[in-house]
Amino acid sequence: MTAIRSVVLVGLFSAKDRGYQARLDALEARVAALGGHVLGRFVQRRGVSDGGVRLLTAPLSRRFLVGPGKLEEIATTCSSQSIDAVVFANDLSAYQRRWLSTRLGRPVLTATDLDQSVESLTARTGSQPRGPHV
């Protein structure tokens, strides 16, 4: 197990969700309570444009949940700031978690994972790939 100290938060939120900042604040407080430090936040809004309204709850990408531009921003921040893990406000399928971990080169966690960690944030080093940009 490897301790996770630095994380970034990521969330895909509907344009109708006015409380998304409060949700991220609560998630950040949970990370801090477990000994982690949030070094960045990334928010992908869905339904802000006219074409996106009908797809408010659908992921932008079946594989990565967020769009390609947002994914690149997250990856760049992770590598430049030596981020240990990425914590998503959204639930992720095993498929999404696997692809995100591979693309970002670090463990990808969700709020549910934080609930299961009683003493500190940890990740199994053998189960999550660390990419070349770490």
UniProtKB/TrEMBL annotation:
Source organism superkingdom: Bacteria
Family annotation (InterPro entries): GTPase_HflX_N (IPR025121), GTPase_HflX_N_sf (IPR042108)
Residue ranges constituting the GTPase HflX N-terminal domain according to the UniProt record: 60-113
Gene3D superfamilies: GTPase HflX, N-terminal domain (3.40.50.11060)
Protein name, entry field: GTPase HflX N-terminal domain-containing protein
Source organism per UniProt: Dactylosporangium fulvum
Lineage, top ranks: Bacteria, Bacillati, Actinomycetota, Actinomycetes, Micromonosporales
